[in-house]
Amino acid sequence: DGGITQSPKYLFRKEGQNVTLSCEQNLNHDAMYWYRQDPGQGLRLIYYSQIVNDFQKGDIAEGYSVSREKKESFPLTVTSAQKNPTAFYLCASSIVGRTGPMNTEAFFGQGTRLTVV
Amino acid sequence: QKEVEQDPGPLSVPEGAIVSLNCTYSNSAFQYFMWYRQYSRKGPELLMYTYSSGNKEDGRFTAQVDKSSKYISLFIRDSQPSDSATYLCAMRVSGGYNKLIFGAGTRLAVHP
Fold this sequence. Notes:
heterodimer; A: mainly beta; seven-stranded mixed beta sheet; four-stranded antiparallel beta sheet; globular; B: mainly beta; six-stranded mixed beta sheet; five-stranded antiparallel beta sheet; 11 strands
């Protein structure tokens, strides 16, 4: 079945550590996104990528980094510079450059819950 | 002021009730409007999609867009306990990459 896989489901980070969240999709989508979800604040865009080897900052990119070496993969690193990393992280993908039917819209993975310990 | 405003609830209704969920927005350039349903500790799933103004119906769900008032709604008829979830509205402009702007989400509980 086609879909988006995020791993791990739960992740614990010590102060000062960098951690990497995995996101893989087999939908053949060009675009991939990382969102952060905090209680009562909806989803906020961290980074997005429309094509391999290219990505742009979203609204809250500070303290995060990404790479897009393969179409299927878009890992997110939460660095020690991110002062409040505890949140639910969601990866999504979509078709780029087309507007219209529902199947061009963003589809989400099941999320990774990151907690600082 | 946020671009998209959505009452976070929680909203509690009895089984069988008609539920109305709403969002307002400030950017008149938004053309595509979506509703996502998110169960606890899961990723959002796309529920309804509407382009520009008008209504769209899918089973027990109806999405309405009123661009003149910058107001969108999702109606759930004959609500079921399985509808208990957080409902997020999302919208975007036409063209470019698909940057979605999300509301905060409304938590809905349907009790038997």
